[in-house]
């Protein structure tokens, strides 16, 4: 059989058998809605959801009552803005700060407010020569959006120091961390970081699509951005309502139950992975020897990103596809870092637990053939 190499883990992970089995078992043998029934079958689903919330909370150093299930990182990042809008936490005089490491989903919801004249000003924090956010460039601002690891460069940012610097300038700054790539490679500790909001997607760590995590530190402080079943405790005679406490307040409607049930299995599987640094390092060393290749990442980065002299990234991606190698090419929804590097796009290879040394040797050999 022809070799097929999936080396696009940073876009989405292949699913571990344990995740598939947990979801199949639930769908086949014990499916019911969550938070709706009182029979044993339904309450077992509630227990499973509560268990997933606990596992996620432990995973990032939080408490279960601060974990809201969303449909993914993009949903979470947009919802943060909507949650802040619900009670007008910002106005035309407010400011926000971003960096060129941001994925479109982290920055565009804020720039959209700016375009609509609903928020006053945007700051862009500087990056140093190693593409780390320059702590000295963090401004006094009302909101700070931090990409904890760029999906192009794969370098973990010092989130704790960044937030500490922002709080020194404005103790009331509201911080939003996009941990979509960071979560795959490094331990998150929301308490140590002292962030207000943090998001990631389940599908990038081996869970199914359609499930994401939104951590909210001061969860009782904020009002819901969505309304529906499961989030109201009582409608009063005078027409007012009493909301449920904690995450339920932000979880209107039926949750992606099956995906939530698979999530702890993904977290368990991820925690046993060595991170694939040996594979990235091997490719880095081999591709460094090819003259036409300009590598953008460092040898200890969590991914390998490069460009090729005289070859469009999309052409290269198509040629790799002919050899059954699946990688990411283009601007990767990270336009700002590409603009900063004066590039239209780049080529990214990212590995997961399914990748082997055999895979990377095949990939390097194929790249040599294409580039020669
Ligand atoms: C850094 C970063 N943030 C946000 C996202 C958006 O994730 P999703 O498409 O799962 O919502 C991605 C996806 O590539 C990402 O890499």
Verbal overview:
Helices cover 37% and strands 16% of the residues. The protein is of the alpha/beta class and 372 residues long. The strands form four sheets. It has a seven-stranded mixed sheet with strand order 2-8-7-6-5-3-4, with helices on both faces. Strand 11 (293-295) and strand 12 (304-308) form a beta hairpin. Helix 3 runs parallel beside helix 4 and helix 9 (277-287) packs parallel to helix 12. The longest helix is centred in the N-terminal third of the chain and has 21 residues, at 40-60. The chain is globular. Bound molecules: pyridoxal-5'-phosphate. Pyridoxal-5'-phosphate is lined by residues 72-74, 103, 105-106, 147, 151, 178, 180-181, 201, 203.
Total E-strand runs:
15
Question: Largest beta sheet: what is the strand line-up?
Answer: 2-8-7-6-5-3-4
Mean pLDDT: 97
- Could you give the order of the helices and strands? EHHEHEHEEHEHHEEEEHHEEHEEHEH
Total helical segments: 12
| Estimated helix fraction | 25-40%
Bound molecules: pyridoxal-5'-phosphate
Largest sheet, strands/sense/barrel: 7 strands, mixed
Shape: globular
Strand content: 15-25%
Poorly predicted segments: none
User: First CA to last CA: what distance?
Assistant: 26 Å
Layout of helices and strands:
Blueprint: E1 5-6, H1 17-30, H2 40-60, E2 67-70, H3 73-86, E3 95-99, H4 104-115, E4 121-125, E5 143-147, H5 159-169, E6 174-178, H6 182-185, H7 190-193, E7 197-201, E8 212-216, E9 232-235, E10 241-243, H8 257-271, H9 277-287, E11 293-295, E12 304-308, H10 313-322, E13 325-326, E14 328-330, H11 335-340, E15 346-349, H12 357-371
Parallel strand pairs: 1-13, 3-4, 3-5, 5-6, 6-7
Antiparallel strand pairs: 2-8, 7-8, 9-10, 11-12, 12-15, 14-15
The structure holds pyridoxal-5'-phosphate.
Residues 72-74, 103, 105-106, 147, 151, 178, 180-181, 201, 203 line the site of pyridoxal-5'-phosphate.
């Amino acid at each position: 059989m022809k070799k097929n190499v999936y080396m696009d883990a940073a876009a989405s992970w292949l699913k571990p058998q344990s995740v598939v089995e947990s979801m199949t078992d639930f769908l086949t043998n014990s499916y019911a809605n969550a938070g709706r029934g009182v029979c044993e079958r339904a309450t077992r689903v509630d227990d499973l959801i509560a268990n997933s919330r606990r596992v996620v909370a432990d995973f990032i150093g939080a408490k279960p009552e601060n974990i809201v299930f969303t449909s993914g990182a993009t949903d979470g990042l947009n919802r943060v803005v909507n949650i802040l809008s619900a009670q007008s936490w910002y106005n035309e005089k407010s400011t926000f700060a971003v960096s060129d490491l941001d994925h479109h989903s982290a920055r565009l919801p804020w720039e959209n407010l700016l375009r609509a004249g609903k928020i006053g000003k945007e700051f862009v924090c500087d990056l140093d020569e190693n593409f780390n956010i320059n702590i000295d460039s963090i401004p006094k601002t009302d909101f700070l959006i931090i990409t904890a690891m760029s999906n192009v460069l794969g370098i973990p940012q010092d989130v704790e120091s960044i937030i500490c610097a922002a709080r020194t300038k404005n103790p009331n700054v509201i911080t939003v961390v996009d941990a979509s790539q960071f979560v795959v490679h490094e331990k998150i500790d929301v308490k140590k970081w002292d962030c207000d909001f943090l998001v990631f997607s389940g599908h990038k760590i081996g869970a199914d699509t359609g499930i994401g995590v939104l951590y909210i530190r001061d969860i009782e402080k904020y009002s819901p951005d969505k309304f529906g079943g499961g989030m109201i405790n009582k409608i009063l005679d005078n027409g007012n309502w009493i909301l449920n406490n904690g995450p339920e307040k932000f979880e209107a409607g039926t949750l992606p139950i099956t995906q939530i049930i698979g999530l702890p299995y993904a977290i368990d599987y991820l925690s046993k992975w060595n991170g694939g640094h040996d594979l990235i390092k091997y490719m880095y060393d081999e591709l460094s020897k090819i003259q036409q290749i300009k590598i953008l990442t460092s040898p200890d980065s969590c991914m390998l990103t490069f460009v090729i002299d005289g070859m469009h990234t999309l052409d290269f991606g198509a040629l790799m596809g002919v050899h059954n190698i699946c990688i990411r090419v283009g601007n990767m929804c990270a336009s700002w870092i590409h603009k900063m590097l004066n590039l239209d796009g780049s080529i990214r290879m990212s590995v997961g637990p399914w990748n082997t040394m055999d895979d990377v040797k095949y990939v390097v050999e194929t790249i040599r053939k294409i580039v020669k």
